[in-house]
């Protein structure tokens, strides 16, 4: 078993999943605005410390994806966040994409950027203690969207990123996200997701990426957020598992779903339904959630130091619930 495969297996170990704490500074600013907390470095550091020092969080969380600012920060005891996580037996990861830019011939669509300086950045993250990376491609469903060019370009960039990561002994999380924004049906989401995954794996193989040393982070097959008919958790599970079986090679170590804007309740319920019917799948079916692990925690914290313990308890309760769902035991 290669070192990459070994790390990938740890990331999707039974009962565990990945905490996505890689919100960019503007994104976490939006979260903070809802709880009336100022978006400054000290508050961002304090909030991440609250999460990373939650007692025994390693029982439910295998790894944490951090933002560039976060992986460089230290806890109030002076230890780096990487060290803090190591003590919890949690792997450190880093978001390495640099956001998106509009496609020239289809300005409604985007392609992810950050490849140019990636070879120079990766060794630095390795030296900081990172074990895995994340890169997100974004696909929109709309009238005549996505275009084949958008799907292709995002797949090519995901593949190049994944190859560069593996050359630096980092496990790449490959995240081709089909957004749930829009009025499309679950059937349309299935059709687009299947195509996106097919094209992505063609490019990963072409680039010589070791599939046993990646984690796939896909969207679930789900109704558009403004679709009049919302599919049930059971329907989401059935079409998601069907789609994955048709597209994902068996040698992929694991699949860690993104929550994609689902509420904490729905993201746990859908994950639970998926794992209840996925008994014969060749991969671990785990989670890599951001908001679906943090929404209640942020509210409980509200930027006040006297709320830290309560907020940590809230976080651990949600992490435990999602951990149970990840094994179909909710």
Automatic annotation (TrEMBL):
<dbReference type="InterPro" id="IPR000741">
    <property type="entry name" value="FBA_I"/>
</dbReference>
<keyword id="KW-0456">Lyase</keyword>
<dbReference type="GO" id="GO:0006096">
    <property type="term" value="P:glycolytic process"/>
</dbReference>
<dbReference type="GO" id="GO:0004332">
    <property type="term" value="F:fructose-bisphosphate aldolase activity"/>
</dbReference>
<protein>
    <recommendedName>
        <fullName>Probable fructose-bisphosphate aldolase class 1</fullName>
        <ecNumber>4.1.2.13</ecNumber>
    </recommendedName>
</protein>
<dbReference type="Pfam" id="PF00274">
    <property type="entry name" value="Glycolytic"/>
</dbReference>
<comment type="similarity">
    <text>Belongs to the class I fructose-bisphosphate aldolase family.</text>
</comment>
<keyword id="KW-0324">Glycolysis</keyword>
<comment type="pathway">
    <text>Carbohydrate degradation; glycolysis; D-glyceraldehyde 3-phosphate and glycerone phosphate from D-glucose: step 4/4.</text>
</comment>
<dbReference type="InterPro" id="IPR013785">
    <property type="entry name" value="Aldolase_TIM"/>
</dbReference>
């Amino acid at each position: 078993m290669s070192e990459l495969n070994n790390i990938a297996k740890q990331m999707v170990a039974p009962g565990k999943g990945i905490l996505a704490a890689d919100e960019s500074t503007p994104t976490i600013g939006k979260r903070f605005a809802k709880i009336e907390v100022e978006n400054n470095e000290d508050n961002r550091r304090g909030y991440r410390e609250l999460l990373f020092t939650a007692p025994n969080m390693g029982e439910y969380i295998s790894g944490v994806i951090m933002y560039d600012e976060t992986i460089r920060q230290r806890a109030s005891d002076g230890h780096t966040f990487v060290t803090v996580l190591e003590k919890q037996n949690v792997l450190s990861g880093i978001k390495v994409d640099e956001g998106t830019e509009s496609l020239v011939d289809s300005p409604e669509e985007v392609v992810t950027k950050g490849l140019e300086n990636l070879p120079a950045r990766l060794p630095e993250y390795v030296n900081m203690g990172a074990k895995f990376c994340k890169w997100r491609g974004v696909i929109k469903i709309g009238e005549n969207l996505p275009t084949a060019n958008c799907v292709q370009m995002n797949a090519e960039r995901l593949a190049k990123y994944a190859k560069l990561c593996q050359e630096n002994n980092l496990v790449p999380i490959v995240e081709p996200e089909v957004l749930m924004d829009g009025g499309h049906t679950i059937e349309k989401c299935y059709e687009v997701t299947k195509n996106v995954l097919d094209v992505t794996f063609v490019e990963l193989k072409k680039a010589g990426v070791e599939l046993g040393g990646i984690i796939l982070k896909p969207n679930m097959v789900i109704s558009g957020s403004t679709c009049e008919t919302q599919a049930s958790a059971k329907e989401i599970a059935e079409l998601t598992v069907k789609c994955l079986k048709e597209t994902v090679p068996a040698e992929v170590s694991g699949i860690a779903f993104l929550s994609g804007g689902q509420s904490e309740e729905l993201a746990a319920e859908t994950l639970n339904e998926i794992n209840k019917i996925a008994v014969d799948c060749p991969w671990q079916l785990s989670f890599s959630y951001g908001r679906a692990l943090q929404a209640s925690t942020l509210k409980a914290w509200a930027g006040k130091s006297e709320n830290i313990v309560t907020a940590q308890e809230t976080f651990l309760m949600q992490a435990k619930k999602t951990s149970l769902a990840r094994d179909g035991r909710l």
